[in-house]
Design a protein that fits this description.
The protein contains eight helices and eight strands; from the N terminus they run ααβαβαβαβββαββαα. It is α+β, with helices and mostly antiparallel strands. Strand 6 (about 150), helix 6 and strand 7 (about 180-185) form a beta-alpha-beta unit.
């Protein structure tokens, strides 16, 4: 498992330790470029007409810093919160999840208005910009099942839409390899620690963010200009 830069936020090491970790960050990021975005077609099957003004999607696609950052810049999204999904409440903590044996994946709970943006459109951004759905148990420099590509549907309709969309993209050979995204229903989302929330916005010069996540925001702006919002909706603004 590649720890790279993340231990910095969990504790306060000395200056020498910080320098060593930052050096590893720069070298690791240079050796492994951030996942590239690509245009993917919209889903042929989407949810039925919205029955309410609020809906939740839980998505995992590598480190939650970048996935949260992407959806915080999407119009129609009222909240994007980092957390853990796939395991038990007792192990829903960063230090434990980082071992890779808890069943959890670093995930983001996206709350959105389906009258403004559909669940299918959320998935289109997820597959196109937020991560590479063909990487098994890894994203960028991070490796382990906690970084897997996974969708945690809130109901049967979401599961059906996600399954149909994955089949559609695979059949069209949109990616160079098969999509490995798992659909994992019936799981519970647990909120991550405060220091993980809004991490991209609060730490724009952090090497991990610079190399792995800021390009995702630029790709969102370039590929989805109609839903891009310049000002992110932040957890610390009371929207969680």
């Amino acid at each position: 498992m590649t720890l790279l830069c993340k231990p910095l936020v969990a504790r306060r090491p000395g200056a020498a330790h910080i320098a060593a970790i930052l050096s590893a960050c720069w070298l690791g990021a240079a050796a492994q470029a951030a996942e590239g975005a690509r245009v993917v077609p919209p889903p042929a099957v989407d949810e039925r007409a919205a029955q309410s003004a609020s809906e939740v999607a839980v998505l995992a696609g590598g480190c939650f810093w970048g996935v949260q950052g992407v959806f915080q810049h999407v119009k129609g999204v009222s909240s994007a919160v980092s957390g853990y999904d796939g395991g038990d409440k007792a192990t829903a903590h960063y230090e434990m999840t980082s071992r890779g044996d808890t069943g959890h994946a670093e995930s983001v709970r996206v709350t959105f208005n389906p009258n403004e943006i559909s669940y299918g459109r959320i998935l289109q951004i997820y597959f196109s910009v937020a991560h590479d759905p063909t990487d098994l148990d890894r994203q960028g420099p991070d490796e382990g099942t906690q970084y897997r590509s996974a969708i945690f549907p809130a109901n049967d309709e979401q599961a059906s839409v996600a399954k149909a969309y994955i089949a559609q993209l695979d059949q069209a050979h949109v990616f160079d390899a098969a999509i490995v995204t798992k659909i994992e229903p019936g799981r519970t989302f647990y909120l991550a620690e405060d220091y993980h929330q809004d991490f991209l916005t609060l730490n724009p010069t952090y090497p991990y963010i610079v190399f792995n996540d800021l390009p995702k925001i630029e790709n969102l702006k370039r590929l989805f200009p109609d839903v891009f919002r310049a000002e992110p909706v932040l957890v610390r603004s009371g929207h969680s």
